[in-house]
Write a structure and sequence with these properties.
4 domains; 3-stranded mixed sheet; elongated; Hect, E3 ligase catalytic domain fold; 5-stranded mixed sheet; 15 strands
Length: 546
């Protein structure tokens, strides 16, 4: 300890949220801590307050030590021997993290710093029992933080369930205004109302995605070219901003809180449920078999021509075939040149890496497109002859099998993660009494990670379970998809080039080409499920023979 006439004291005051320093709400907790520490100092005549540090709106549970400026200042000052005592209102003001807070406190004591709490006295680390008490104190504080977090989440979830704005960021398409509602303290609060100008832009984004197959980058550029500003008044839209809108259920009138989505509140609705689900499938790009059981358009590369761009693959190397247009020259017998306008699909692996592909370099685009469109017409012909009730039953049966498998796998993952958590909890108890091969520090690092993993698996299991049980919703979705197919049957022949590209990519997953006489058309699960395997196989066999 330094040999100063008086012990130099640094005081730390911390509140977790800015709401706790809102004087208008009468909740300023900083003066409470400040006054208590000053009163405590009056009983210590040999102590002298030399510095006070304030952390406003800083969580001692969520924030890591290195993210807290005040703690880093205290650590550096301790190394420089600038103070002798750290005084806090309660030890949880230093932190509530079981994996870090005991370590920073042990570090300060190791530097000769006394740690005092107004309410809990001095924290020492002289014996093994002192270490255990220190860890348990932080563990209890961490548990309290979890409880507070759960209460806050429950409160927000309750507000969301009643269609009430919970504060925070206002989504594009809405404004937050005071329209008469008050809180429990009789203070006016804000609610969401639709901003008609922005709502029109939201509708444009969804329409461009689900009807025209435009990608997020294309849509963002289109908005920028029109001079439309973002919610924050910026003149630059980004693809991530577009995707955020496409994924936000608020546009169907549904609030989202803690990963859970409420029922729809029609006063907030801008987009239909059907369009939202179609957009959801577009941006997920049918990453799993379960998602691919839904019928939805894929992103069409609007900057490229080629009716089959995105679905053609080389049958030798497996690489994508890309559309290319060029002018070919041929000499006539009389020595003059004749120009031929050619459209082809080219294998660039064959062009630039001949050792990796021995197939054809180019395939005639017109002929290949005609062949594939014959498959599409044959598919529509099969659908047209099949009763809608039979298609609906086939789709429901197909998706049920997929969801049953996903549910079984998720259930196994949840059982395994729960068992792992139980084992880790047992090891934590053993570590506290010195009977574990693992240290308390190691257990502290593993527990949050395992808890996070378990929560993620729980949420996934609950989501799959809910979708599996929501038979009526799935049936309505498939019925809507069947109606959409019926519309395509009527309009495909007269559809624009761009619209045909979208429809083809919704029905066909891949066309694997070796030559015009040797190719394979693979229908998407979303197309197969309405007819069944036998009907689709018949289409493939009949067209190959033709």
């Amino acid at each position: 300890m330094a040999t100063h006439a008086k012990k130099r004291v640094w005081a730390l005051y911390r509140v977790s949220t800015l709401g706790q320093v809102d004087q208008h709400e009468g909740r300023n907790d900083i003066p409470v801590q400040h006054d208590a520490c000053h009163k405590f100092l009056q009983a210590k005549p040999d102590w002298e307050l030399t510095n006070e540090l304030y952390e406003k709106g800083v969580s001692g549970y969520k924030k890591k030590n290195h993210e807290r400026e005040a703690l880093m200042t205290i650590k550096e000052a301790a190394l420089a021997k600038q103070f002798d005592v750290l005084l806090v209102f309660m030890f949880d003001r230093i932190g509530r993290r079981t994996d870090e807070t005991p370590l920073i406190m042990q570090f300060l004591v190791g530097q000769g710093i006394e740690i005092w709490s107004v309410n809990e006295g001095q924290r020492k680390y002289d014996t093994h029992e002192d270490e255990l008490v220190g860890w348990l104190g932080t563990w209890l504080a961490s548990g309290e933080s979890r409880k507070i977090s759960l209460r806050v989440k429950a409160s927000k979830a309750s507000m969301a369930d009643h269609g009430l704005y919970c504060g925070g960021y206002v989504p594009y398409g809405y404004d937050a205004k005071r329209i008469g509602r008050v809180n429990k303290k009789d203070n006016p609060v804000r609610d969401l109302v639709i901003n008609e100008d922005e709502a029109n832009i939201v509708q444009f984004i969804f329409e461009a995605t689900v009807e025209k197959g435009y990608g997020s980058y294309y849509i963002a550029n289109a908005l920028n070219q029109q001079g439309i500003k973002t919610k924050r008044g910026k003149a630059t839209w980004r693809a991530t901003s577009v995707r955020t809108i496409l994924r936000n259920p608020i546009y169907t009138g549904r609030m989202k809180s803690d990963g859970k989505v409420t029922d729809a509140f029609e006063q907030y609705r801008i987009i239909s449920d059907d369009d939202f689900k179609r957009a959801e499938d577009v941006i997920s790009e049918r990453a799993s078999a379960r998602h691919s059981s839904r019928l939805a358009p894929f992103r069409v590369p609007t900057e490229e021509r080629g009716l089959l761009t995105g679905v053609l693959y080389c049958g030798i190397c497996g690489g994508r075939l890309t559309y290319n247009h060029f002018v070919d020259k041929k000499k006539n017998k009389d020595g003059t040149e004749r120009l031929y306008d050619r459209e082809v699909y080219r294998c660039y692996t064959r062009v630039y890496q001949k050792d990796k592909c021995t197939g054809r370099t180019i395939h005639d685009a017109r002929k290949l497109e005609e062949i594939v469109q014959e498959f599409v017409v044959a598919y529509f012909s099969k659908v047209k002859r099949k009763p809608k009730a039979a298609m609906l039953q086939a789709a429901m049966s197909s998706e049920k099998n997929i969801l049953d498998l996903a549910h079984t796998q998720a259930e196994k993952a949840l059982t395994k993660a729960t068992k792992e958590m139980e084992i880790l909890d047992e090891e934590a108890i053993k570590a506290l009494v010195g009977e574990s091969v693992y240290s308390v520090e190691m257990i502290n690092r593993l527990l949050p990670k395992q808890q996070e993993k378990l929560e993620a698996i729980k949420q996934e299991f609950e989501r799959i379970h809910l979708e599996r049980e929501s038979e009526a919703a799935r049936q309505a979705q498939h019925a809507s998809d069947i109606e959409r197919i019926s519309t395509w049957i009527q309009s495909y022949e007269h559809s624009s080039y761009e619209k045909r590209k979208v429809i083809i990519r919704q029905i066909i997953k891949k066309v694997i080409v070796k030559s015009l006489d040797d190719f394979e058309v693979i229908f998407r699960l979303s197309a197969r499920q309405f007819l069944g395997e036998d009907d689709v196989n018949d289409i493939e066999e009949d067209e190959k023979k033709a």
